[in-house]
Structures are given as structure tokens and as C-alpha cells.
């Protein structure tokens, strides 16, 4: 995935301490003037000796573009388009996606 072109749009939404979460499974959404596969942001500044667990209060449901898939690609990038390093070795990174079936009439 190439999200580098979307970062200037996201600067309106996030400051330099935020991580941007993207997923190839979802349908592109309009962020600013660009269509991107963007899930949400979270703050990446924490004290060195502090473990971090993010549990988002609100679950966001976004349209899923792929109906069949074997793998899901998640990228967590900073505003410069670089992968956010999770190298402290204290705990693995875990991302939980929640799906719900859309009822059509």
C-alpha cells in the first residue's frame, strides 16, 4: 500500500505524535480531498518505562471492500509515511478488528 500521498490531508486530523492506522480490507473513505483506506489515529508518545494498551471507547464500522480474503494488511505509520517502530520488546502488537454483518432489505 502506498499512503504517502495522503499525509498532507491528515495533518489536519493529527499532530506529529499521532500514528495513522490503515487497512487494505476496507473501502476507501474520503479524508480531506483524498480517498484512503484509513481506520483511525492514536497517540504514540508514552513514557519509556510505561506499557501502553489502547482500547478505543467507540467502535467505528467502515465498509469492507473485500468479501473474501486470506490475509489482512494493517499498516501503522507516522505523518512522514514511516512505519511506527514497536521495538521495546515488552509486549507484542495486537490489533483487533470487529466485523458485523450488514442487513440488507
Topology overview:
Layout: H1 7-10, E1 18-23, E2 29-31, E3 34-36, E4 38-43, E5 74-77
Antiparallel strand pairs: 1-4, 1-5, 2-3
List its traits.
105 residues, mainly beta, three-stranded antiparallel beta sheet, two-stranded antiparallel sheet, 1 helix, 5 strands
Strand order of the largest sheet: 4-1-5
N- to C-terminal separation? 34 Å
Largest sheet: 3 strands, antiparallel
Tally of individual domains:
1
Strand content: 15-25%
Count the helices. How many?
Answer: 1
Q: Give the helices and strands as they follow along the chain.
A: HEEEEE
Which segments are poorly predicted (pLDDT under 50) over 5 or more consecutive residues?
Answer: 4-14
Mean pLDDT across all amino acids: 75
Computed over alpha carbons, the radius of gyration is 15 Å
What would you call the shape?
globular
Helical residues, percent: under 10%
- Overall SS class: mainly beta
Q: Tell me the number of strands.
A: 5
Amino acid at each position: 500500500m502506498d499512503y504517502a500521498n495522503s499525509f498532507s490531508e491528515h495533518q489536519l486530523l493529527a499532530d506529529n505524535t499521532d500514528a495513522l492506522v490503515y487497512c487494505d480490507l476496507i473501502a476507501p473513505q474520503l479524508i480531506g480531498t483524498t480517498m484512503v483506506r484509513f481506520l483511525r489515529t492514536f497517540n504514540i508518545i508514552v513514557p519509556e518505562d510505561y506499557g501502553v494498551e489502547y482500547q478505543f471507547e467507540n467502535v467505528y464500522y467502515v465498509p469492507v471492500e473485500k468479501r473474501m480474503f486470506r490475509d489482512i494488511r494493517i499498516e501503522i505509520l507516522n505523518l512522514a509515511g514511516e512505519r511506527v517502530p514497536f521495538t521495546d520488546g515488552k509486549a507484542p502488537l495486537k490489533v483487533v478488528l470487529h466485523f458485523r454483518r450488514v442487513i440488507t432489505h
